[in-house]
Amino acid sequence: MNKRSFSERAFDGFNLFLLTLLMIVTIYPLVYVVFASLSDAGGLLAHKGFLWKPVGFSLDAYANVFRNPMILKGYGNTFFVVVLGLTCNILLTSLGAYALSRKSLAYRKRIMLFIVFTMFFSGGLIPFYLTVKGVGLANTLWALIIPTAVNTFNLILMKTAFEGIPDALEESAKIDGANDFVILFRIVLPLSLPVLAVMLLYYGVGHWNSWFNALIFLQERSMFPLQLILREILLQGEANANLGASEGDVAMLTVTLKYATIIVATVPILLVYPFLQKYFVKGALIGAIKG
Q1: CA pair distance 68, 71, nearest whole angstrom
Q2: For 175-194, b where at least 16 C-beta lie within 10 A, e where not — what string?
Q3: Which of 5, 94, 174, 216 is deepest in the core (most CB within 10 A)?
Q4: pLDDT for position 15
């Protein structure tokens, strides 16, 4: 076994230090939000510098968030949009990606040109709203699902992944009598688990965090997703503070409430990510390896 030189050990040590520092810089903001949401409002306002533990442990911020009767309704609406949205996203994106990945598709390059064009240019907000309203989707949860059913970047990413599957598998399946749907759902998709995991994460996070489309398309509060309900809670807290509430109330409504809403909105995604992490890096790099 060759003895490692001083320069090699110094290089490894520097890399270890740099990666450790990067990890701390990445994780600390999340740790800060958690500790701040569990802190006493007045104590948090008086605290200066780094936050290494809750300042006067208190669950008042979470109590104020969940005291709103619309929170559970918002969770239900968001889960509805995420589940049905992901189903539409994966189905339509995989169908489009499979068709565009076939070399036998006529005018494939021209079709891709029109699709890529939509990444850089759009009709604008007003035509988008009028289109959604014109087809009867306004004030329905489908307005949060159908208009965003296919994302151009995700389509290109999945198309690139499908192109990496050997043509021999498709040819063998066709010899055995398989049609395109059988090839897609029984061969191509099972071999594309990394990119499917990435699609689930990209689309899922997009649906979970989406609030702007809900703001412009939904009028009934009973349909509001979680993010819109949390936005209302924050705006209400700021409004109450501006109306002259006591100092403690101001702290609660404008500081700890903000951190509690961040945790409420983020935890479900953080719980899902570990199950997709092993596929995520490989799937996300597919588009960078082959155009």
Answers
A1: 6
A2: eeeeeeeebbeebbbebbeb
A3: 94
A4: 92
As for how many domains the chain has, the answer is 1
Residues of the chain with pLDDT under 70: 1-2, 236-254, 275-291
Does residue 10 form part of some domain?
no
In a domain, 151, yes or no: yes
Contacts of residue 39, defined as CB under 8 A and 6 or more positions apart, other chains included, come to 47, 51, 54, 55, 56, 57, 58, 256
Task: Identify whether the C-beta of residue 147 lies closer than 8 Å to the C-beta of residue 137.
Answer: yes
pTM summary value: 0.76
3-state SS, residue 135: coil
CB 128 within 8 A of CB 212: no
Range of the domain at 164: 60-289
The CATH number of residue 87's host domain is 1.10.3720.10
